[in-house]
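Researcher: I need the complex structure. Ligand is inosinic acid. Inputs:
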Amino acid sequence: MSVTALVGLQWGDEGKGKVVDYLAADMDVVARGAGGANAGHTIVLDDGTKRVLHLLPSGMVRPDPLCLMGAGMVVEPWQMVSEMKEAGLEPSTASRRLLLSPRAQMVLPYHRILEERLEAILNIGTTRRGIGPTYALGALRMGTPVGLLGHREELRAWLQRMHDMVAGFGSGDLPDPLEVLESLDAVSNWLLSTTGNVTGELHRARAAGKRILLEGAQGVMLDLLHGTYPFVTSSSTTATGLAAGVGLGPSDMDRVIGVVKAYTTRVGEGPFPTEEHGPAGEMLAQKGGEFGATTGRPRRCGWLDLVALKWAVRVSGARELVLTKLDVLDGLEEIPLCVAYEVPGLGRVEDMPEDAWLYAKVRPVYEMAKGWSSSAGLSDPHVRDYISLIEEFTGARVIKASWGPRRSQMGEP
Ligand code: IMP
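Model: Output:
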């Protein structure tokens, strides 16, 4: 039996979709346990076709794995149905491929409206998919789990409650609860057809010796507790958060693999010590095609931050790394690597300050790595040196590295 958790170790967009797709080839089960349609997992098939999944686990792109969506997820019903249709699923047969926990919270128009209101005050730069309000209202015990779709009267009363509560925030015109109920009626058979006992299925699969992949969303630096608060998402993005989101315990995980991009990007607001505002940042954005898969927003770009990465490795428990997008660095003479921070009042430190406001004031200290002309095949010794530096600094082993979007452009260093 084996359970592998795969998590992003930066601010999301590390290329998890590609890595999950690669690993899914050997998996019986692929499960998501946190986040929602704020994620955008891009997979490029070998014929060049691109698929972007926001809610469904990336294992859907493969013919075989059973895909599970756990209690820790937040699911927008209409988006879910459109992704099910795109994946060729039908209500009569969907549950053979896809199971959704009735405990997952639904994202409704009220959550999105509330997010607009909150963003005007907080300016986090969220994906505006209603993620934060859905988790927050869930925590307040005012959420709307998917299972409520099977209880129309209770759902109606619940929608009225939510309407009245959001109205209390002075959110202007709100959709009538009956209208929301009717638009849910139009999709509820799709969601209910795929609703099932995700945690039970997962434990059965584990006991039967099946290979299980837990697919993380976002990245550790966006974790609600351990990321760059308040510029974070509203869920736990670590491996333990992921396991909790599907109903597995920490000791049920056999491997934790972290995905790292060879440089760093961030979408939305918040501190980013190695950000490059000049031509280097533009070069990374252009060569890396750094535009958000969910929102289309340009991503902020900069060099690899080993201090933040070490923190993310520790917090996530990742012992193995997959390094992505090395090709974006091809052709550079030298590549800056951030190995410490200059912190006001503290001098040079090699650990991530926990005080978020202090973190906003740190300056990166760089060491220069030698560049390479082509990372293809990972044979250039300077590519290997770059990988070794990452391993030495973080204490985790790089098991795979990729030099392009296709399934075939990934190898062992
Ligand atoms: P939210 O998750 O929509 O609430 O957004 C909170 C922060 O997380 C914002 O900075 C978003 O840009 C960022 N974020 C959320 N999901 C992703 C993702 O999948 N990739 C990269 N950034 C993300």
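Model: Summary of the prediction. The CA atoms of residues 345 and 358 lie 10 Å apart.
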